[in-house]
């Protein structure tokens, strides 16, 4: 194990886990309110980022970046409301598998719509954070009598900070607002919430609108680091194991799961990472870091089938 580089890769992995945690939070939010696992979240993320690029680009509207991001968030809100009203509300009362297949079909439709509108060309997202002045942090650790210095790109640091701010805002929203409390009540039991006067269809619409905003913010944060093309929708594959790892209905679990997934992906990229496996196996894992979250998920689910923060529900008949 290359111990000198361990802090660098571990901290970088945790920072990468911030946007993953935010994506997982958007998926959990929809599942908690409507019990629908949204497989179209990646395409919602892609459309939000593409919309921000179009509003800011000279090829599009040419707006200032801050205005372009606000406009993209508005588009994402409308997209979330349209998805709930036009595709999922008519499916009320249908088998759960049919609704899940609907989200899969919706994801393919949104992917095709994005290709039709924006094409398949890779684009450079407008620069938000400096890429030439990374932060250098000297840790209170030494290796061979030399201090360990961690170099962090600004976009990684600020993407993590923004993602965590969004998480905190959502937690406060759920705890202290009437709409947030109504969403929590609906997530607990639809029939009971409806019996006390909560309009659950209204709650579903708000949940999808917020999920659209979360997806757009996640897409913008990721696009600032990796560029913007159709592969952006695949990034959400790292969020699926984060959701299951933390527990399908747990907001803290989604955040922790995203950070764990980011940390795991960071550590497998560590050079000479053959401390617990052969060099060939370590290299194979590094070349396919996308499978690491799923390997981690399998290990955790064997021990805790409901996830780290999942709840077992016992129904009496």
* Overall radius of gyration: 21 Å
Question: What is the number of helices?
Answer: 12
Query: End-to-end distance, in Å?
Result: 55 Å
Mean pLDDT: 82
Structural class: mainly alpha
Contiguous runs where pLDDT drops below 50 for at least 5 residues: none
Cα shape:
globular
SSE arrangement, N to C: HHHHEEHHHHHHHH
Strand content: 5-15%
Structure explained in plain terms:
By secondary structure, the chain is mainly alpha-helical. The chain has a domain at 19-235. Helix content is 65%, strand content 5%. The protein is built from twelve helices and two strands. It has helices at residues 6-34, 41-56, 65-88, 96-118, 154-176, 178-188, 190-195, 200-226, 239-246, 251-268, 279-287, 292-303, and strands at residues 135-143, 146-152. It has a two-stranded antiparallel ribbon with strand order 1-2. Strand 1 (135-143) and strand 2 (146-152) form a beta hairpin. Helix 2 (41-56) packs parallel to helix 4 (96-118), helix 3 (65-88) crosses helix 8 and helix 9 (239-246) crosses helix 10. The chain starts with 5 loop residues before the first helix and ends in a 14-residue tail after the last helix.
């Amino acid at each position: 194990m290359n111990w000198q580089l361990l802090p660098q890769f571990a901290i970088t992995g945790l920072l990468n886990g911030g946007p993953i945690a935010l994506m997982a939070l958007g998926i959990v939010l929809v599942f908690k309110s409507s019990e629908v696992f949204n497989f179209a979240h990646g395409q919602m993320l892609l459309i939000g980022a593409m919309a921000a690029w179009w509003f800011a680009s000279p090829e599009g509207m040419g707006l200032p970046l801050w205005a372009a991001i606000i406009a993209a968030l508005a588009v994402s809100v409308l997209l979330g409301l349209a998805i709930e009203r036009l595709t999922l509300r008519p499916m009320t009362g249908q088998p759960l598998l049919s609704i899940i297949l609907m989200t899969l079909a919706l994801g393919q439709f949104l992917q095709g719509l994005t290709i039709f509108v924006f094409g398949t060309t890779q684009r450079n997202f407008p620069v938000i954070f400096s890429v030439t002045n990374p932060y250098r942090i000297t840790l209170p650790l030494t290796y061979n009598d030399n201090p360990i210095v961690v170099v962090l790109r600004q976009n990684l640091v600020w993407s993590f900070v923004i993602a965590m701010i969004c998480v905190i805002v959502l937690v406060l929203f759920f705890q202290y607002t009437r709409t947030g409390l109504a969403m929590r009540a609906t997530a607990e039991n639809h029939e009971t919430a409806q019996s006390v006067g909560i309009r659950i269809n209204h709650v579903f619409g708000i949940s999808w609108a917020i999920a659209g905003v979360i997806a757009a913010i996640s897409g913008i944060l990721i696009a600032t680091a990796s560029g913007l093309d159709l592969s952006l929708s695949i990034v959400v594959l790292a969020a699926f194991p984060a959701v299951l790892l933390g527990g399908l209905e747990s907001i803290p679990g989604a955040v922790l799961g995203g950070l764990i997934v980011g940390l795991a992906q960071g550590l497998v990229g560590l050079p000479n990472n053959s401390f617990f496996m052969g060099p060939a196996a370590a290299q194979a894992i590094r070349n396919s870091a996308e499978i690491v979250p799923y390997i981690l998920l399998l290990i955790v689910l064997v021990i805790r089938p409901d996830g780290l923060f999942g709840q077992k529900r016992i129904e009496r008949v």
